[in-house]
């Protein structure tokens, strides 16, 4: 073990033989491990290490649990600093008996971006746990600041080893930990928590999804911008306002986890892994909850404001995030912090992947200009610890940078395919001039993701996500209805590409309800039969609604909580989702290129109402795709023919001719009013031509007689 001693030369000392060299405020101390940022337990004490390029002094504050004032203030001596790092081992500390924070002194010059204030209590940027955040909806004393705890790292993962499901085989299910089980209809013992989600794992297993994407679970303060609107308390419900990148949100735990923060989350991840499901975290490295010059200073501003944030020449904050500030991701200090953070979540929590919110910010230079080969993105792509981890970019930001199809990737980065969402929403509701675009999206968006330069797994296809309408609302509302957010319905996107099927919002009209159900089935069928990784929003499978609110980031109530009573009410839709998920898993030809078909068909081919003649004029509302290949694992030809008609009139469809001994059979027909899906034992055969109903999807499989 390398240790820096009091004479600043390097010596090798076994950890158990470390001896104090000084006494500060009655505590025995010595210089610590300068490369180990954060607070780390070592035999006999705790190592504290932080960095600041412009600070002139640093103090370590030790508090008794929830105390207002520190019981000890330990200034770092000059010889406990090397370069810009301060490091100290404090002996005799019991980690369960204290909380800690820092105070730094240094120059204050707003135009130079320097905001040091020795009166501010600062949270360690590498804090593994943040105190005072475990009571959801409880307003903390703003003068108290945030403090950190030292965390035990002794979770027993057993013999579990990291296994990576290929991107093309993933079916991603995006959910909000609190909103998923908070409503009483969820029926769980620990609503709104990691344990509550754990109770729903059998449901997830039955549905068939094999990856859950958790909306932010890093520590955030839901009360930071709390507002009272029409007697409803609005909070930062979604959590896209990080306080600490290394700490789990303790209010998502069902019980207090003093100095063991993260144990419940680890238990959830372990159980998901045991059920062959991966965990993807939605991470927010584009901004922090400190906001702009009018926001609080509780961590990064006080350590090195001019390093952690992108600043204008006069010291103001660039706002490419739309949230007040922008993290300076390609500064070496910030880049290293993000790398350290992601490695930590992979090592300590065994996370399988990350979805990066507003990821285009991660590719901006310190002055905000886009970089050709951003060093952070490149480092993440080639990092050894992150080697098997999924990296998924939301390839745009709030500053107008839109990189869908052009995000720097090194064949490692996948993208939320916003073009898939927009083009397919318009096509599915019957807009003109979309057949050609729809055909491209269904076949993996080759116009965006060249297989040679981007690989085959770059596109994450989705029609819904947390941001925007649910699937039910997509076919129930023409306009957003965000009045409850308190901004006069001005927030949220206006280009939803939705259709209310003739009635805005709730209705009892059976014909409208039937059409909405069919439209949702169409969307599910096409999503599951598209090349690329499918993702959908939790609750879409049973028509959960947000009552037309397409931006419920602040709604900790029935608007955002899943209504599980709808599962029984809309059981047919749930069963259709379940069927389509298992259908996709059963047909590898949809997901990837197989061995060439012995029948002579290409891996993917476009068709129209007439075989081999893509019917893609501007007036067309149909798109047909044939997936084909020889599946070695099943020792058989795999043939799937997807036919989509989004027009309000039916159309005669002629099927591609199969060789003797093969027959087309109907696996799915959303236009069949009696039965939309068919099992292997009852699957009906199709003739050489069929009637493709209005606003309908038919999925055929080629079977050997």
From TrEMBL:
One of its GO terms (biological process) is carbohydrate metabolic process. It holds the Pfam family CBM_48. InterPro entries: GH, GH13_cat_dom, Glyco_hydro_13_N, Glyco_hydro_b, Ig-like_fold, Ig_E-set. The keyword Ion transport does not apply. Residues 174-584 form the Glycosyl hydrolase family 13 catalytic domain. The keyword Transmembrane helix does not apply. Keywords: Hydrolase, Transit peptide. It comes from the Bacteria. One of its GO terms (molecular function) is hydrolase activity, hydrolyzing O-glycosyl compounds. SMART domains: Aamy (SM00642). Gene3D superfamilies: Glycosidases (3.20.20.80), Golgi alpha-mannosidase II (2.60.40.1180), Immunoglobulins (2.60.40.10). Belongs to the glycosyl hydrolase 13 family. This is Putative glycogen debranching enzyme GlgX. It comes from [Ruminococcus] lactaris ATCC 29176. The lineage of its organism: Bacteria, Bacillati, Bacillota, Clostridia, Lachnospirales.
